[in-house]
What we know:
Oligomer: homodimer
Strand content of chain A: 15-25%
Largest sheet of chain A: 6 strands, parallel
Shape of chain A: elongated
Strand order of the largest sheet of chain A: 2-1-3-4-5-11
Order of helices and strands of chain A: HHHHEHEHEHEEHEHEHEHEHEHEE
Distance between the termini of chain A: 39 Å
CATH architecture of the largest domain in chain A: 3-Layer(aba) Sandwich
Number of strands of chain A: 12
Largest interface: A-B, 38 and 38 residues
CATH superfamily of the largest domain in chain A: Response regulator
CATH topology of the largest domain in chain A: Rossmann fold
Radius of gyration of chain A: 26 Å
Amino acid sequence: MEGNKELVGVKEIARRANVSIGTVDRVLHNRTGVSKKTKDKILAIIEELAYQPNILARRLASKKQIVFAVIIPSVSDETDYWQEPLLGIEQAAGEIAPYGIILKKYFYDLNHKTSFVQQIDQIDLSDIQAVLIAPIFIEESENFLIKLDKRKIPYVFINSDIQGHNSLSYFGPELYQSGYLSAHLMKYVIKEDDTILIVNISHEIDNHHHLLRKEQGFRSYFKEKDLKNTILKIDIVQTDYQFVATSLQTVFKENNVSAIFVTNSRVSAVAKYLNQTNARKMLIGFDYTKENLQFLKQGSIDFLICQKPREQGYKGIMALYQFVVHAKTGEKNNFMPIDIITAQNCDFYIN
Amino acid sequence: MEGNKELVGVKEIARRANVSIGTVDRVLHNRTGVSKKTKDKILAIIEELAYQPNILARRLASKKQIVFAVIIPSVSDETDYWQEPLLGIEQAAGEIAPYGIILKKYFYDLNHKTSFVQQIDQIDLSDIQAVLIAPIFIEESENFLIKLDKRKIPYVFINSDIQGHNSLSYFGPELYQSGYLSAHLMKYVIKEDDTILIVNISHEIDNHHHLLRKEQGFRSYFKEKDLKNTILKIDIVQTDYQFVATSLQTVFKENNVSAIFVTNSRVSAVAKYLNQTNARKMLIGFDYTKENLQFLKQGSIDFLICQKPREQGYKGIMALYQFVVHAKTGEKNNFMPIDIITAQNCDFYIN
DNA sequence: TGTTAATTCGTGTACGTTAACGCATGTATT
DNA sequence: AATACATGCGTTAACGTACACGAATTAACA
């Protein structure tokens, strides 16, 4: 139960196989210079003893650092969303730094594919042991993944997933369900014949499928429950407040909207508009950003849906660490919880 | 920015101080056998170089294990709540096991102080480096903490806090606010003159202040918002279903209750009763247990409030690890997020 | 002054692994 | 037959720290 004291090491393996520890070491790292026969014998003994290398000794003896590449969007004034994953990444980095692991970070611009490609090209794969990547640009990412696969460099995705690749794991949201949940929360408040407005605010075309997926979830709820509310939708392709305000004004002039679902963190712009025009409507949006929080507390936003951006970064790095250092693999798909933030629990939220 | 290569070790310190590494080692562990003069000199150099011992080498060279004592309630049939913290604890244990840390667990019975004392007495403090404890029984815990303080053994609290002690940190809920939040959620649904019922189900007297704190938060919300709803309350001191059902029946006969707030995980019993009597009322309770989850999905429970029991255990152990091994301290008070679980997001919840 | 006992310190080995170095063999090339 | 070169392996010095052992120095006392 508690005492598996007799931890064997290379010495014991060597003794049993009648070879030197050098040879054992060679097969452990499958380097060349061992005959098939002895290699098999040693492998068998390793198997039999269920040998676990002592990682302390290993890292101590090996002077080379382990390097993880981190490829994520930069935090723009456009959105400070990516600050959070970065914080998580840096926390993890701090925790594993004592074990000789360092990070190399590559930031790309969410609005420009070219910047992504540029960063990718800058990476020297020959001195990188693992990769954490937010694969926003699908095609370009896939080209990169193929290179990684060739070199057998493990990688994990955060924030968005690409199917059909050998990623170690994915840490991020399940978008559909978050839209579905939003609809449910909305239903608590609206009446039978209320009109609902879905608002997409984004000029980042490549992110659009993100928003769409949430919208699908949202609409599905109404369909499944057979609710008859009118659901309007507006795409706002400029993110500055003036443009948003004007767009909303147009809609509101022609329709009597009583609840709004904003599909991303831009909900604060809508809240601001409602505030200024003194219109009180139910409002649901995404992400625990500074501006959103302000409107949440002040009452303009009813609910924020949030999916632990920081944790995505933290866990992503940790998954790489567990794999590279301890050869442990965890779950492949790690959907973040879909958190509901209100003015009452927001102070305790861990982003 | 990135390269603080020149990591100094005892060797360098010894060289600068014109002593041997043995002497340096002695002052590092402040053992005896070093003259004050050389000791001061070495200390000064350590300071100057901001020497950080290499923990890998340290743990490798030191054959002794580090032992953490874990003192928490056992999972009873009464409640399987404590299974979750335990899971978190065991996950953390798995992660730090490679670094020579082992756990000794002491389970006590929530219903019996004596069992707590009994477990405490069983612990041999001389071979324990740190303690994780759920200090449910305050007075008895305090006696124990004094002993720990004397031996300078660090400890962290989970689940409930005791003020005025040298605990490294606390990981657990802020109860008042979770009651407050529940009230807010309820307000979305109830009408002005609806009657509300608060239900306490517990025969564990010592846990009672937990429940009370939530009730206070709940009531405060109604007071602050100046809501005029009638709030009834019932204490149910037996936890078996029959007793709960009978108690509820009595209340419902005399009052027209339209929403119920159950102050702990026993909410499933209430849900079951509502189900059987075909009564539909808004229902809010606590904790992501198997039974609760079932009623949540099926629609009898509207919201579950949950505070990451697993994470409490995980983070508690990790805090001890960071302190004992890396001499790092984190925040003292770590209130868990107050999570809102509905049928729509429950599948993604991480307990 | 010599003897003894503290006190203060240096040396050596160990922890389990890595990896450079080098020594035997065996096989192919002139 | 002499030379070259590859293959298969053992030896050994690190990595940074812990700690036992014993040597040197000093203090104490006769």
